[in-house]
Amino acid sequence: MSVTTFKFTTARLTQCSCPVGKSYFIYWDELVKGLGLKTYPTSKKMFIYQSRLGGKVLKISIGVFPNYSIDQARQMAKEYDVMILQGIDPRLEKKRLIEKNEEEIKNYKRQKLLFRDVWDDYLNANKERWRDRTYQDHVRLASGNNEIFKGKHRTLSKPQPIYALLDIPLNELSSNVLSTWLNQENLERPTSAALSFRLVRACLNWADEQSMYTGLLPDRSIHSKKVKQAVTPTKAKKDCLQKEQLASFFKAVIELPNPYISAYLLVTLITGARRNEIATLKWQDVDLKWNTLHISDKIDDDGRIIPLTPFVKQLILNLERHNEYVFYSEKSSIGYIVEPTKSLKIAASNAEIDDITIHGLRRSFKTLSEWVSLPSGIVAQIAGHKPSGTEEKHYTVRPIDLLRKWHIEYEEWILKQAHIKLEL
């Protein structure tokens, strides 16, 4: 028997070492063909398997001795030997098994994915592309119990519609689950439910194009007839102030205890701006020298410049400056008015006016402007409506003084109907 080939025992292998001057040395087991112990000058010892496949020498590391026992090494060497006889490269087989195992783990994790995982990925993937208002709408409609004020008391808000779907596994979002969710939300807030559905649908359409989520959603669940029928059709609102209601409306709004909300509502009516365009107005956007306001526009990323009319200027200058926002809110965590609807409803009720929304004030600007024959292009430019027609889009550029001429005329007419005398 060669001193390099012997029956492996723990005692013998413990004594084995790499001869001086060699980078490694291999001892062979006489019981199992191809099983060796590779020793190094560093005292490291590694079980290996060596054979030939397709005319080429094949060496495979099995494990470190003594962490790997002799019996384990022999068993592994025998398995490799069987593969070699079948013409299988053990290295490739090991790689295949690892990849198969990784794929199974990946599929297992995929099956455990919640809608929350998809929703968060969807928001992160689109945050930079969306306008801030769009992103905040997604966050808001998926929020849970948020702390809010009711009067002077703190309380928890009711979770928003999408929140109910977040902890449902993605592969369980069937048409039954989605239609049940919609029917439940429709009982109290059909409009929010319809908007939430559109956001969820867009999210799931996006997910279906991502390899991570493809095939997990039950087939066409979001597009099923059952789900579509559960969505409450949204009807265009027509709430709008009438000329004869202006006096009582102004009186009721001016009497509101919060001067910031009072001014906010009147400025929205006179400028026709969107609710968030006025709410997020900053003091730096108010140019008292040239009497202009810089409005963050939903349509134009650069915003738009509109006249600062005398009454609007008076309303703004009467407000105390607490932070960067003109329409400051002590209760809001972001520093400006977020939910003026409750105050608007109180004012409308006191003025004996049927329910009117914040967007209804914007709609009123367009409707009431016809009493003073404001050109439609002037109205659109002040209110920030998307230009219609080639001429409006590419050729008509109105200077601010022309806008101011018409805007002041409109404001003066409004104040006259409201019996408000401007204090100059």
Automatic annotation (TrEMBL):
Tyr recombinase domain residues: 236-408
Official protein name in the record: Tyrosine-type recombinase/integrase
Transmembrane keyword on record: no
Alphabetical list of PANTHER family matching this protein: PROPHAGE INTEGRASE, PROPHAGE INTEGRASE INTA-RELATED
InterPro entries: DNA_brk_join_enz, Integrase-like_cat_sf, Integrase_catalytic, Integrase_DNA-bd_sf, Integrase_DNA_bind_dom, Phage_Integrase
UniProt-listed GO biological process terms: DNA integration; DNA recombination
Keyword Membrane: no
Signal peptide boundaries: none
